[in-house]
Design a protein that fits this description.
81% of the residues lie in helices and 0% in strands. With 443 residues, the protein is mainly alpha-helical. It folds into 2 domains: 198 residues, Growth Hormone, Chain: A; 194 residues, MFS general substrate transporter like domains (Growth Hormone, Chain: A, Up-down Bundle), CATH 1.20.1250. The longest helix is centred in the first third of the chain and has 58 residues. It is globular.
Length: 443
């Protein structure tokens, strides 16, 4: 009897334990299913925020520069700025991009790329608000440098964010933000003066108004400031993995592809800054009216809006990007030849050709995302290529001005522009080869 009772008690306890286990499994299963349903919803919500943040950030990566170019004469008069200081302003952007861009990968590892881009948009907003009302040339330059610092770190981290959030859509997403960047560049150049007139003719108001667009770009990043480079579904696992081992930094300077991409980036930036700074003057000296020359420059810049979306998508479908590099280079050589032989007669054609050639910029950004396998590799490659490239680009516009002043014409400067296109094509072909910097650095 006692044995039977003991047996029944034991069986009852086993049944009870089995029941509890089954209930526990059911609860965990339900929780897992609920979590599985929540993760895609969270991921979709966060992905939409990232897309919005990328677009708004890209719109703000050039207005601080091109809006000042539109009102430079008024700002000079208002601040009593000397001609040499005004000339220095044209070289400040690439210098700041080179100096501050180096900091971006380290900041991204420390705080996460989303947080750094958010801080970059805050810096742009603050710089644009303070700059017009600084009251002195030194304050104006300091506020400009603050805005450019925000632009520099965001420049470097845009390819990183695209690679990590959209690894299978690098081309289309790079095209999207390149198009937004080109749109922001062209819009600031085109509408700053009309907006200034609408605001009563104050150059301070005309420059400060762009702070509103920068402030809007802060908002999408705020919920993502705790991101450390992974999508919501991946973050816990990635953080645990990073807690165990921190991947060593690449010796990026050992990679020939990294150097080729840096030089390609620098030469295309040189061509772009020369075009933005001098092309309108070339047309005016050829007898084209000032208003038409400004419109021609706008056409050159607007060409980047549709092509910046198309070229990266095409580039990611090709095993090597050399053919695109060659095609863009040929357009540039044809445009420079036209400026040399018939600047006024074929002005519209030369403006279009040079606009196509300047789309080497979105191609370079696309190759940054393609030439590294990992997010950390993209961060290092982006910082190295952009910082080195912008350093390379600094002397170009100044050298063109010196040649123009000493030769009294545009023959030598245009010859220099055409000559620089040849090495740009050569290193672009090397940078476009199907290989990664991780493999080269390891060897």
């Amino acid at each position: 009897m006692d044995n039977q009772s003991s047996h029944d008690s034991m069986m009852g306890g086993m049944a009870s334990e089995e029941t509890r286990t089954m209930k526990s499994k059911t609860v965990r299963s339900s929780a897992t299913e609920s979590e599985g349903a929540a993760v895609p919803a969270t991921r979709a919500w966060a992905t939409r925020l990232v897309v919005l943040g990328i677009v708004l950030s890209a719109l703000n990566l050039r207005p601080a520069i091109t809006s000042l170019g539109a009102l430079l004469e008024e700002a000079r008069d208002g601040l009593g700025m000397s001609g040499s200081v005004a000339g220095l302003l044209t070289s400040v952007p690439p210098l700041c991009f080179a100096v501050f861009g180096v900091m971006a990968p380290r900041l991204a590892r420390r705080f996460g790329p989303g947080a750094v881009v958010c801080a970059g948009m805050v810096a742009i907003t603050a710089g644009l608000v303070v700059r017009p009302y600084a009251g002195s040339t030194a304050g104006f330059l300091a506020a400009t440098a603050l805005a450019l610092m925000g632009i520099a770190v965001s420049n470097v981290l845009m390819p990183v964010i695209v690679k990590r959030w959209f690894p299978d859509r690098v081309g289309s997403m790079t095209g999207l933000y390149s198009m937004a960047l080109a749109l922001g560049t062209a819009s600031a150049a085109a509408v700053t003066v009309p907006v200034t007139e609408m605001l009563g003719g104050s150059w301070q108001s005309g420059l400060a108004v762009w702070a509103g667009l920068a402030a809007a770009a802060v908002l999408p990043w705020i919920p993502l400031v705790r991101d450390r480079g992974a999508t919501p579904a991946e973050q816990p696992a990635v953080r645990r993995e990073h807690a165990r081992v921190e991947p060593p930094a690449l010796r990026i300077t050992r990679s020939r592809t990294a150097w080729a991409l840096a030089v390609f980036f620098g030469l295309q930036a040189t061509a772009a800054y020369i075009t933005m700074g001098w092309m309108a003057q070339i047309f005016r000296d050829a007898g084209v009216s000032a208003s038409t020359a400004g419109l021609l420059l706008a056409i050159t810049m607007v060409m980047g809006v549709p092509l910046a979306f198309v070229i990266p998508r095409v580039a990611t479908r090709l095993p090597q990007q050399g053919p695109i590099v060659i095609a863009l280079g040929v357009c540039g050589l044809a445009g420079y030849a036209g400026l040399y032989f018939a600047p006024a007669a074929g002005a519209w054609a030369w403006a279009v050709l040079l606009g196509v050639s300047n789309c080497a910029f979105p191609l370079a950004l696309t190759m940054v995302g393609m030439r590294a396998r990992t997010g950390a590799g993209v961060a290092q490659l982006s910082a190295f290529a952009q910082s080195t490239g912008y350093l390379i680009s600094i002397p170009g516009p100044l050298l063109v001005g010196v040649l123009y002043q000493h030769s009294g014409g545009w023959g030598l400067p245009i010859g220099l522009m055409a000559a620089l296109m040849v090495p740009q094509m050569a290193v672009g072909v090397l940078a476009g080869r199907n290989r990664t910097v991780e493999d080269e650095a390891a060897r």
